[in-house]
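Bench log, entry 3. Co-assembly request; chain sequences pasted below exactly as received.
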Amino acid sequence: MKSTHLTDEMLQAFLLKEIANDSIDKHLTECSVCRAKLESYQYLIGSMQKITPETFSFDVTTIVMNNISLYEKKKSKKQELTFWGILIFLLIAISSFSIPFIPNILEVFYLKSIIPTQLLLGTGVVVLLFLWIDIIQQYKKKEKKIFNNNLQPIL
Amino acid sequence: MSIEENHFSDKVIVTNILNGNIQDFAFVVKNTEKLVAQIVGKLTTNEDDRKDLVQDIYLKVYQNLYSFQFKSKLSTWVANIAYNTTINYLQKKKIPIIEIAETIEDKYKLSENPELITIKTEAVGILNDELAKLPPLYKTLITLYHLEELPNKEISEITNLPEGTIKSYLYRARKILKDNINHHYKNEQL
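Structure output for the full assembly:
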């Protein structure tokens, strides 16, 4: 029997083909202790591949998708609140700055000729109509996207 | 599946999700669930904690998907998030991930040649028990290497540990397992 044995690291590396060495081969043919150790590792590694993999006892996809759906709802609510906050702030700011100019604006409507008044009102109505149609189109587009993307997992 | 095909399908899924097709995220969950289960399952034992961790992990994946650079497989990236989230959880709970109170080799002086003990057919069951006794990090590394058959490079990307450290932990974990199993049989024979 040899006085010095192969280390566990060497045996494992040899078994996993991480090292190839003739001297290890030679030692193993001569040393029954190292051979037995190698067999133990061989059996251990073989058995490890037969272990049942870990699984979750709950439906991961459903839980995760529900959580993400909730997150998206919270996110859109936050975005909506921010949007309205900014809009209200802008309206108040614009209104405050407009106060000194209100008499000048009103003067336009007191002109003797009716044509500029009608022109102004007509342009205003056309712009409003255009904006209204655009808002409806955007809304329908988003509604369709939400309908197609109803957050249900594909299983 | 080749690396290129993997990257292509990863790109398609990620692009779809980022374009607003949230239901495609279910594909990510389905494709990575098994790997995440190995990591979370080996690092934690409490079922409620696992449920919370899984939700936390996938929410992080969803929130950070825009930052995924396609430098690795999507599954490796998700596994890395799973590993870091679980390690943070263990650190918060002050659960050690490497140290073990007393290994069998410290506890008992094993005989000169315990390997000669006959290994029986119920070895897998015993191995499962002994594997459960290992420190969380060793358990995870053993599972990723031997069960998931991931190369050291990929395990390194998941755990952020150098490949050399992973190798050394794996050697030590296998040695502990072998010694503990041998000790188990030795006790049975007495």
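Confidence is low (pLDDT under 50) at residues 100-114 of chain B. Chain B has two domains: 3-92, 104-189.
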